[in-house]
Amino acid sequence: MKRYKKGFFTAVCLLTMIVISAGCSTKAAEVDEDLLGVSQSDMDKVTITITCNSKLDHFAAAAAERFPNIRLVQDCYTGQYRISEHVADIEHHDFGDLLMVKAGHIPKVNMSDQLIDLSTQPFPVNFNANLLQADENGHITLIPGPLSFNCNIYNKTLFEENNWRVPENYEEFVALVQKINRTGIRGLRNCYFDSASQSYQIYQYSVFSALDTLTQVDGQIWHNKLMSGETVSLNPMKTAFENMQRMMDIGAIKQEDMSVPFNENIEAIANREVAIGGGEIDHIRTLNSSSKDTFCFMPHFSMTDGQGWLLNLGYFFGANKDLQQPGNEKKLSAAMEIMNFIASEEGQELLVEDGLGMMPATIDAEIPDDPALAQIHTQIESGRYIMRPTYDMFSSVLDTDIGAFIRGELSSEEILDRCSLVLKQGPPSVQSLGEASDDFTILQTGCLKADALRAATNTDVSLIGISEVDGYDPVGGIRTKLYKGSIAEDDITRIAQPLMDVPLTTVRTSMTGKELLSLLEYGATSETEQADGKVSRFHPFAVSGLRLAYHLNRDEGERVSAVTLEDGSKLKPEATYTISYIAGAFPKGKFDGKEAGITLTDALKKYITTEKKVAPDKLRIQLNL
């Protein structure tokens, strides 16, 4: 911590001079507020931004070496409200030159009219056709990243002890579950517990729908039409309910399953209370490391074709259609070079290193030598993996009615009649808490949160760290924006807190103007930087109650100028000011702060509902190099 403390109190005399000479500096080169942290040393390169929700450091490093004339910048959101952030980005056509999206998020919002058709490019042939999800006209807008599967997990040791054979089709699977049930061990159990972050009832229903409908070409076409807003029959959804009913009839789905959280179900599998349950590679690794038994994958089975299938949970990549605009020829060429690298086995292996999947999705890629995968080799080699659909437009119905179906209170016909009504009338309107008069930048969104924090804590000044490119997040920072138009509850949470169910705690303290200036000079810090006692570079704060200019490339003591209070008066070095910030923003023991008694989420919601209409402050902070 020594360097932090030294930096915090350095250059006090210089800071006092800065306050006195406020406004004397000349304006330097403009800085893109949404690309804070971009190196200024590679300005001659073609810059390609990739909007992602997981860091791609291994891939980016290799791309930098392979393509010396291209600078790949990660526009990386690392919070847990990934779906909300993705939907907001697409709805406002606000994403980079390239886009990375998780498989399960693809159906959440129609992207097809915003992405380049890649079918004429050479690299889609590197993948199995069913992974590319081409439309009726053969257009391809997304290519896959590495494969990551959800399958059935079974206790291999338990199977061998009881001479249970791994099934090869749906009917054998049904018979096996019933056979195991008769021993007193639960043959099959999946999670149907609805948590605050995941509706497992809708999730499991969607798994049945994927296996029974999307494994068929006709089913894929039907789903694409449904997602694009066309009027279609909901009969394919009935098939999933028929499969669920079959599972209920054999005791594979019970009412009490709706009260069993996912982790508790995994524990039951570890303890031999359950023989088979759905999961991913991380769950198998956890089971194998914590148990004397050996656990492996077996496929899911489709009721309609009887075969074994895998759910692909990996990521997909697309290119922004704006690259095809006149004047973007160099960027388009560079972007296609990056996409071609993504589609190579080398690129896929690098993305595996970045944690995006288990193995390359490219044809003939080598399957990892992992015993847990032995029973799904056939499905991997033949490309029998599919994406899980989502039925967000029906969530107002399915959130409650799937549980009612399991309890025997509603029939599938009654549920689908309600879904049909939603298609005709549209989903329920989302309550508006306020309105944004214009789009906000990431910096301006940070200042809005600081305004809300200052109002809620009744302090003179508030400070909020700002997330930067390439996955840099200071404590309390989130790489999100507020967009023009109605502000809903979902906007509040995705902007104000990075973790689900864990809102950010706020703190209130007092300090002198001299200390505040030193703090602004040092800048925001991440948890890693606090632990190391040094920063990677200068990270400016978003502020409320102040107006100032930052000089991003200057040394400490010369980074902040033109500092005034909101009313235009000068900040007095010896005066005491009340300050509010996010808990953990500064090293423990730095300030004698007290919790303010309100979370940032609640503060922002209160501010929006009180103000009714908010606008970005474009003059509060001036960014200079």
UniProtKB/TrEMBL annotation:
Range of residues in the leader sequence: 1-28
Gene Ontology CC: outer membrane-bounded periplasmic space
Xref: InterPro entries: 5'-Nucleotdase_C (IPR008334), 5'-Nucleotdase_C_sf (IPR036907), 5_nucleotidase/apyrase (IPR006179), SBP (IPR006059)
Keyword presence, Mitochondrion: no
Protein's name according to its UniProt entry: Extracellular solute-binding protein
Keyword terms of this UniProt record: Signal
PANTHER family reported for this sequence: 5'-NUCLEOTIDASE, 5'-NUCLEOTIDASE-RELATED
GO biological process assignments: nucleotide catabolic process
Superkingdom to which the source organism belongs: Bacteria
Domain (5'-Nucleotidase C-terminal) ranges: 444-581
Molecular functions per Gene Ontology: 5'-nucleotidase activity; UDP-sugar diphosphatase activity
Pfam families, A to Z: 5_nucleotid_C, SBP_bac_8
Presence of the UniProt keyword Signal in the record: yes
